[in-house]
Recover the amino acids of this structure.
């Protein structure tokens, strides 16, 4: 049985075998691309030209060894603590220990749920219809729970370690190199792919606003950082169609139809280890398969935009809400960058901190302390920006 021809219910074991075959063919292509290595900056504090060239050619780059072992452990521990306090089901108010579930005072529920190994959005009108083709959904094991947490929303007020990661000087230098010194935030979420449970994310492109703009270019919708707390493999990781960020709006339905399955031809997995960070153009065609593998993946996403693509733009969020991003809205949301820089300075004083130019000289207004936790950070994701 293969993924493309299964007529009976697809078991998780069948899915593991088929994904292993698909992955083996693509892994060699992924490594041969050569778009991986440490963050390397020139004398001007910007990425070396060859790294930027590789990013713009392929649409992604794997930065190796960004987060040290001690920081990875801190991040894992804090994410696990948030997951341990999740409700036992989407409609419950208590966690698995009978305690009141985490989330008091948080306006947007921090937990997003899905059925194990399901495809919650593919082939639907959800998320502005940007997932036009469904993924295959293997049957989970008999002992699988009814629901699994697939995403945590608002990393920066859920975890101090995530806030400190947000102030990472190397990553912020990468952001400035790609988008300019006045880059602005998108949102921050954690993707959770538990072994044998993690649902798929159907093939899509992230951008929804600028596809038909007369000045559209290959960077119009910004990028995501994807920091991995566990190794990202062909079975549990995100797959991309290299170079698709340069070709405009893709016909994903056609790509899937031509493949005869949910395995698009020419796609590669973004392979990396724990502590590595992938920078991924949001216009790349990308998606992830149901995690029928025995390996866990937790990915910390941080998105950024070119400021000129956000200022005074009116857009419809994935929820359907229409918003305009004026100077005041952008200024309030970007304060989180400076607060994160200060939080990191307090935890890692030996590092040379990043200077975020739009807020240079306003460091004292954006210190990390209990006051800014309550007045700026709490519910900060209500001010997320989407294009």
């Amino acid at each position: 049985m293969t993924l493309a021809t299964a007529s009976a219910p697809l078991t998780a074991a069948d899915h593991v075998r088929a994904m292993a075959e698909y992955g083996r063919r693509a892994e060699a292509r992924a490594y041969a691309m050569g778009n991986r290595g440490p963050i390397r900056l020139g004398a001007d504090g910007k990425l070396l030209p060859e790294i930027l060239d590789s990013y713009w050619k392929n649409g992604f780059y794997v930065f190796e060894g960004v987060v040290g072992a001690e920081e990875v452990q801190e991040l894992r521990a804090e994410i696990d603590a948030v997951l341990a306090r999740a409700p036992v089901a989407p409609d419950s108010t208590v966690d698995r220990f009978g305690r009141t579930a985490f989330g008091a005072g948080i306006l947007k529920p921090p937990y997003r749920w899905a059925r194990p190994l399901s495809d919650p959005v593919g082939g639907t009108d959800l998320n502005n219809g940007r997932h036009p083709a469904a993924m295959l959904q293997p049957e989970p094991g008999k002992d699988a729970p009814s629901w699994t947490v697939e995403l945590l929303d608002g990393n920066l007020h859920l975890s101090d370690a995530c806030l400190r990661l947000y102030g990472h000087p190397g990553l912020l230098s990468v952001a400035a190199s790609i988008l300019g010194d006045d880059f602005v935030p998108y949102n921050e979420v954690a993707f959770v792919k538990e072994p044998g449970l993690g649902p798929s994310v159907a093939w899509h492109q992230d951008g929804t606003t600028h596809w038909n703009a007369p000045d559209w270019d290959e960077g119009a919708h910004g990028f995501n950082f994807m920091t991995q707390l566990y190794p990202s493999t062909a079975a549990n990781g995100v797959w991309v169609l290299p170079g698709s960020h340069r070709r405009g709006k893709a016909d994903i339905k056609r790509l899937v139809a031509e493949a005869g399955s949910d395995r698009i031809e020419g796609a590669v997995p973004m392979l990396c280890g724990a502590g590595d960070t992938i920078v991924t153009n949001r216009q790349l065609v990308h998606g992830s398969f149901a995690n029928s593998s025995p390996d866990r993946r937790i990915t910390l996403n941080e998105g950024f935009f070119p400021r000129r693509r956000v200022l005074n733009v009116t857009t419809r969020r994935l929820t359907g809400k229409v918003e305009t991003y004026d100077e005041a809205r952008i200024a309030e949301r970007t304060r989180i960058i400076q607060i994160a820089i200060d939080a990191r300075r307090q935890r890692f004083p030996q590092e040379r901190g990043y200077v975020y130019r739009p807020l240079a000289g306003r460091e004292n207004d954006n210190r990390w302390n209990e006051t800014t936790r309550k007045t700026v950070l709490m519910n900060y994701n209500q001010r997320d920006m989407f294009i």
